[in-house]
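Margin note: ligand = glutathione.
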Amino acid sequence: MRQEIKWSTYRKVPILMVDEDVQLNDSSVIVSSLKTYLASKEKNMADILRCYPEMKSVNEGGKEVMEYNNKYWLMLSEADTALVYPEKGMQKEEMKWRKWADDWLVHLISPNVYRTTGEALASFDYIVREGKFGSLEGFFAKYVGAAAMFIIAKRLKSRHNLQDDVRQDLYKAVNDWVAAIGKTRKFMGGDCPNLADLAVFGVLRVMEGLQAFDDMMANTKVKHWYRRMETATQNHQGRH
Ligand SMILES: N[C@@H](CCC(=O)N[C@@H](CS)C(=O)NCC(=O)O)C(=O)O
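Resulting structure:
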């Protein structure tokens, strides 16, 4: 909840604290920093973080937001880069699809999970069930939240130029993703997931348990890759 991150000037989640003094903001910065750390043991987090400087920018809605330079880039020596990306084009492809997940795929979630009043209520029922709400607070959060997000989702739909039938954008997006992996690879990273696989999985996973997710699984080709990702993330099988 908002009050739980009062101590931070950056007001979004996730935030990762390292040893109670280094604060990592933004999920892509967190992922790139952790991956850099794991792949190049000699650097410390504070030094790594300095490679992702913040800058203020203006978003599609005209609002001032914090952006982070280089957020899809790993800060590795040439030798370490060759270990993480053994083949030509792997690094560029990973960056392209991580950016796609942040700039396009993620914007399909709200319009899809708050598409109808019934779906908005189901989404908030899930949020309230999983979150820390008192029973009265939860009751209000569910109905007020669902109504607000139903309206906001329509605004997001037009801001990001989605089709009238928002499911079609979702289906096309995940089918494009599966096509980019192709028939010969298990993951975009090859035999193990890379950071693009992780980013796309992270976005799709938040819809689990909702109608949008079931519709996507039934009407697209993403199912096999998605099931492989579930197993891979549970068993810590990321590329290293
Ligand atoms: N680009 C950021 C986006 C983070 C973000 O928007 N988080 C939402 C929750 S999913 C949030 O905290 N929103 C609160 C706000 O915007 O004030 C990231 O990937 O971490």
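The two ends are 34 Å apart (CA to CA).
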